[in-house]
Write a structure and sequence with these properties.
The chain is mainly α and 68 residues long. The protein is 41% helix and 0% strand. It starts with a helix and ends with a helix.
Amino acid sequence: MNIETQCLHAGYTPKNGEPRVVPIVQSTTYCFDSTEHIAQLFDMPTEFMYSRFANPTVDAVEKKIAAL
């Protein structure tokens, strides 16, 4: 893949029925059932929890930069 193509498409692979390009996540917070769950995420993030730390858009950009 040319670097120009990687700049556009690296970091996100849509599944069947998903958008062709990564959607921009505008949410700033996520809902959780318990404070214990959130505390575990601060020790070992395994999912998106707060936009300053990670969200799907940031994840795609990180993967794009790594691919380049």
